[in-house]
Amino acid sequence: xxxxxxxxxxxxxxxxxxxxxLVCYKHYICWADEIILSENKxxxxxxxxxxxxxxEAAIDCLNTYAYSEPFERFDAEKCNxxxxxxxxxxxxxxxxSWAEFLLECGDYTDGNYAREDCEYFYYMLNDIENSxxxxxxxKKQSSQVLKRFSDIIHEINDKYHEFLPxxxxxxxxYGV
Length: 176
Prior knowledge:
mainly alpha, 2 domains
């Protein structure tokens, strides 16, 4: 469990988890409540986050915090790589197909600097589509992507798992 206020950099990562729909309000409501109860003066953005179920509003709360004074620099490539990693986790969970993974990552990296540009994903997508989606090609391509992004996939997986106990707590608390 996280049991602490996240750093500004971690807030940027959390935005990615929300943006890719790897997590939702059920993952953060109980965490925010826990922080509010443990802090004498919880940050305002935590108070806002604790009462929002809207993905867009949650992203606004987190971005307001992450990009507030004192300003910090974030490694843009790593931030963009986190999107690819979060989509990878969604692919592994069978929430999206391999073709959807390639399209989403290609679209996202088109104009966003990442360790691989959009063509990397689009070429793989073209090969899959032209070959009528053979599992053998999917396995080959997915192993290449995993090898190329394994470090960041591991990091995002760890961040995702930090919020899983709060999802369980939400389910128990609200009977969902």
